[in-house]
Write a structure and sequence with these properties.
This protein folds into two domains: about 220 residues, Alpha-lytic protease prodomain-like; about 80 residues, 2-Layer Sandwich (Alpha-Beta Plaits). It contains nine helices and three strands. Strands 1-2-3 form a three-stranded mixed sheet. The longest helix has 30 residues. The protein is elongated and about 90 Å long. Pfam families: Cation_efflux (PF01545). InterPro entries: Cation_efflux, Cation_efflux_CTD_sf, Cation_efflux_TM, Cation_efflux_TMD_sf, SLC30A9.
Length: about 300
């Protein structure tokens, strides 16, 4: 993922959520709708999440140090994981609590035009943010389905923003449905039910985000296509005859560690092997530019010992 594409989607989502949060709070104050309060907190949580993603991207750019020789690329994964926690606690749990309270103590919605008008405005604004995230994702998604893209993306920002925007749009529809039914029936319980649904939705999205970012935090290998490119680039057919075994690990979204044992001929000189390793590293970096840290160990190929 290009960092600029991810940043553009985050900034678009942040601007939309800040404007929507203010409008929702105003609508809540005039109407007393619990759905509007839950949606207000949801937008504030989303705004905070976008701030976390921007902060993580900034911190990940720091230079490597002796204590962190591979750099700080995984900062982006840590902050993406924090997003899932914020979405679960601040957004989801608060909405469930507020919905429970409204169902047990229902009261009619006042000044109905405020929540309805703000929700329509929020749907329009959120749609523009979602459209930006979709457009930026399409530039790198290729032939992957949306589910595959969310699961396989090594850069966390776009999947996070996509799921947040999707959750926001569905949540707005639920809030509009809850407010609408409360107005039509004169029963505020429907507003509480809509709020509960928003809470369940946010918790579900938070769980998905937590699972995906946890996998990235633990360390994921390069994709199948990248692995094949690296293996092909390492072999020159003269000195380096094959890759005996290889391990890859993402140090960050755009930084890959490659460690491989390569087969060389037993009669090659040390100089020939060293030159071949340097050439192999250059070919690998050309084939897969994110392969920044490469360790190649020469060995004699023995079929019975190969992993």
């Amino acid at each position: 993922m290009s960092a600029s594409g991810g940043t553009k989607a985050i900034v678009a989502a942040l601007a939309a959520n800040l404007a929507i949060a203010v409008a929702k709070f105003v609508a809540f104050l005039f109407s007393g709708s619990s759905s509007m309060l839950a949606e207000s907190v949801h937008s504030v949580a989303d705004s905070g999440n976008q701030g976390l993603l921007l902060l993580g991207g900034k911190k990940a750019q720091r230079e490597a140090t002796p204590q962190h020789p591979f750099g700080y690329g995984r900062e982006r994964y840590i902050y993406a994981f924090l997003v899932s926690i914020v979405l679960f606690t601040v957004g989801g749990m608060f909405a469930i609590y507020e919905g429970y309270e409204k169902i047990h103590d229902p009261h009619p919605i006042e000044a109905w035009y405020w929540p309805v008008g703000v929700l329509v405005f929020a749907i329009i604004a959120e749609s523009f943010s979602f459209r930006t995230a979709i457009r930026e994702s399409n530039e790198i998604r290729g032939k992957l389905s949306w589910t595959q893209f969310v699961k396989r993306a090594k850069a966390p920002e776009l999947p996070v923003v996509l799921l947040e925007d999707l959750g926001a749009l569905v949540g707005l529809v639920l809030a509009l449905g809850g407010v609408g039914l409360a107005l039509l029936t004169g029963n505020g319980v429907w507003d509480g039910i809509g709020t509960l649904c928003i809470g369940v939705l946010l918790i579900a999205i938070a769980i998905v985000l937590a699972a995906e970012t946890k996998s990235l935090l633990l360390g994921e290998a390069a994709g199948v296509e990248e692995v094949e490119k690296i293996k092909a680039a390492a072999v020159d057919g003269t000195v380096v005859t094959r890759v005996i075994h290889m391990r890859t690990l993402h140090l960050g979204p755009e930084e890959l560690l490659v460690a491989a044992k390569i087969a060389v001929e037993g009669n090659d000189t040390a100089t020939e092997v060293a030159d071949a390793i340097n050439a192999a590293e250059a070919r690998i970096r050309e084939a897969v530019p994110i392969a920044r840290v490469i360790y190649l160990e020469p060995d004699i190929y023995r079929p019975e010992a190969a992993e």
